[in-house]
Amino acid sequence: QVQLVNSGGGLVHAGGSLRLSCAASGRTISSYTIGWFRQAPGKEREFVAAVSRSGIYITYADSMQGRFTISRDTFKNMVYLEMNSLKPEDTAVYYCAARSGDYSSAPPPLSAYNYWGQGTQVTVSS
After folding, report:
1. Is the Cα torsion angle 100, 22, 45, 54 positive or negative in sign?
2. What angle do CA 89, 123, 113 make, to 5 degrees?
3. Residue 106: pLDDT above 90?
């Protein structure tokens, strides 16, 4: 099985940028669909972005489209989430997650992910 470790969160002003990292160990990320999710205080965990096992398909939540970029480095066994034009409403704990297998038409739902990182806090000040 794969183990995931999140890093890269922090405090940033509105309009700023952050790059989150998801370090995988135990198995290669090429075996998994990798998703990013976030959870704000008092809210449910929500989908942010996903990259398919093949690397061919990438999906973003509507509110992140054009601002966030998911990428992966199979040599380093890392997945990244580049976040630009950050808004106070982006404040949340961000998690990466892995699910065995691929997708094509739509990314797997939250409940389908088997492995989760510990999360990293992102705080955007106004």
Report:
1. negative
2. 75
3. no
